[in-house]
């Protein structure tokens, strides 16, 4: 886990609560994400704090890259969940559409993605696509 994490009482990067009770338990392996949306939010947080190991652990083996290099100058600023289809505690698959805002070298950008997840001994990220505008 990266050294420069938010404090347990600080806002979680995913925007839902405080880090210590929101995404930190998933990132440090104490509590798996109970839903596809929770996994997507914890993965966003992993991008925000630079936790490539968590991203690889929660990526489905069929689509997971061998390595993952995060862009050190990219700062993830805000997550907006637009749609959730299935992905609940009793589902085997789900989709989450989101917009993630970022900044690098003073320029702002965003990632708009519809991510697919499956539940196989816990939720895993499969892949994502850019929704049609």
From TrEMBL:
<protein>
    <recommendedName>
        <fullName>YchJ-like middle NTF2-like domain-containing protein</fullName>
    </recommendedName>
</protein>
<dbReference type="InterPro" id="IPR032710">
    <property type="entry name" value="NTF2-like_dom_sf"/>
</dbReference>
<dbReference type="InterPro" id="IPR048469">
    <property type="entry name" value="YchJ-like_M"/>
</dbReference>
<dbReference type="Pfam" id="PF17775">
    <property type="entry name" value="YchJ_M-like"/>
</dbReference>
<feature type="domain" description="YchJ-like middle NTF2-like">
    <location>
        <begin position="35"/>
        <end position="128"/>
    </location>
</feature>
């Amino acid at each position: 886990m990266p050294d420069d994490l938010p404090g347990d009482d600080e806002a979680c990067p995913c925007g839902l609560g405080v880090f210590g009770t929101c995404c930190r338990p998933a990132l440090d392996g104490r509590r798996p994400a109970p839903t596809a949306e929770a996994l997507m939010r914890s993965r966003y947080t992993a991008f925000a704090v630079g936790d490539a190991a968590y991203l690889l652990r929660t990526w489905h083996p069929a689509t997971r890259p061998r390595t993952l290099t995060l862009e050190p100058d990219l700062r993830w600023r805000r997550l907006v969940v637009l749609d959730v289809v299935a992905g609940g505690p009793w589902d085997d698959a789900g989709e989450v559409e989101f917009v993630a805002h970022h900044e690098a070298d003073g320029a702002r950008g965003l990632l708009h993605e519809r991510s697919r997840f499956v539940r196989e001994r816990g939720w895993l990220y499969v892949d994502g696509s850019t929704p049609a505008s």
